[in-house]
Amino acid sequence: MKEVDYQNERVDSINETTAMAHETTLLNPRFYTTNFKEMDQLNVESVRKDWDELISEMKSDPNRTHFKKTEDWDQIDFKSLEPELRKEFIDFLVSSLTAEFSGCVLYKEMKRRGTNEEICELFSYMSRDEARHAGFINDALREAGIGVNLGFLTRKKNYTYFTPKFIYYATYLSEKIGYARYITIYRHLEKNPNKRFHPIFKWFEKWCNDEFRHGEAFALIMKSDPKFTSGINVYWIKFFLVAVFATMVIRDHARPAFHKALDVDIEWYDETVLRITSEITRQVFPIEIDLENPKWKLGLKKLCVTFDSMEKAKRSGGIRGKLKYYTYSTRALMIFVGLYLIPSKKNLVPETSRLQPSY
Ligand SMILES: [Fe+2]
Ligand SMILES: [Fe+2]
To answer: 60: which residues sit within 8 A by CB, 6+ positions away?
Structure first.
């Protein structure tokens, strides 16, 4: 148990996984807040047909009964996992849970504060789904006696403010990349069932369809007004593409034992996930990252190495450790700028954007 002392609050005692989810770092999933009033002004008239179809699909709630343990849920003993694998798997679950719950909190707040019926309806379906996803992961953690205290997180985790358009870019990308991640793991384990060391992976196929639909909703929101994807906003789109893609790659490279247990080659996995996500984003973004550019691949590699050095410097402590940490941070920033400056590829956005999950 970790003692956490909060100003103006009594001392709370929270477990290790709650502390992990609570911590705000550059790479950890964050909680967001935004200008809900501005979001409430959205008008989806220009994408009416696609919008109505999507909303009726969400209303029909195709995954209503999916997030329940069935006989497919094999019991596993966390303690039997190799210590490194156990640590990285818990990190994977906690970070996925935090991301799922972050969506739940943001979407629920929009539903609570909004007056625009259509937007509120969408956000109520999305928060319903994310609550299920977070709850399901937390069940898996609870089974191992390490469930996250979600109420504590809602009250205590720092919230990052993003203007609505930044929410659309960031959330759209994280929904679509979430889809690509879940489906890639699922398809890989379909072919290699003996590598499925935990039953939760069996749930990923239908699960990722929820994420796909959430992404579709944000695509339509961005399509509803051309200003979101033109002019100076194209530079913002590029920023979010580079930031979201790079964050994923760095985080995955920090979990070698987890990927080894799944028999997933991290390079292959990240390339596949980024390719799928990039293909999907052609539905709405006027540009895409040139994933085949050798500078892109090299930059990502350097970024992973630099983040690893940052971590080591942080752990070594002392003034020397701090100095090293700042040196590596500056280097990471320069590499990030280098990645951003790689020319992107232009993309002709189709008239209608609706896609179905097909991977
Ligand atoms: Fe989700
Ligand atoms: Fe989602």
So the answer is: none
Name the residues around ion ligand 1, CB cutoff 5 A.
100, 130, 133
Containing 53, the helix (H) or strand (E) segment is helix 48-59
Dist. CA 247 → ligand 2 center (Å): 18
Asked if 222 and 284 touch (Cβ cutoff 8 Å), the reply is yes
Please tell me the distance between residue 71's alpha carbon and the centre of ligand 1 in angstroms. 23
Cα–Cα distance, 78 to 231 (Å, whole number): 51
**Burial status of residue 219 (CB atoms within 10 A of its CB: 0-12, 13-18, 19 or more):** buried
Question: Ligand 1 center to residue 210 CA distance, Å?
Answer: 7
Q: 161-214, pLDDT tens digit by residue?
A: 999 999 999 999 999 999 999 999 999 999 999 999 999 999 999 999 999 999
Residue 344 per-residue DSSP state: P
Instruction: Return the number of other C-beta atoms located less than 10 Å from residue 100's C-beta.
Output: 25
Backbone angles phi, psi at 265, to 5 degrees: -80, 120
Ligand nearest to the CA of 211: 2
286 with 234: CB under 8 angstroms?
Answer: yes
Query: Closest ligand to 214 CA?
Result: 2
For residue range 311-344, list pLDDT tens digits in order: 999 999 899 999 999 999 999 999 999 999 999 9
* Distance between Cα 269 and ligand 1 center (Å): 20
Place of tokens 């709850």: 135
Report the separation in Å between the CA atom of 32 and the middle of ligand 2, taken as the mean of its atom positions: 14
Return the exposure string of 126-146: e unless at least 16 CB atoms fall within 10 Å of the residue's CB, then b. Answer: bbbbbbbbbbbbbebbebbeb
Tell me the backbone φ, ψ of residue 343, rounded to 5 degrees. Answer: -55, 135
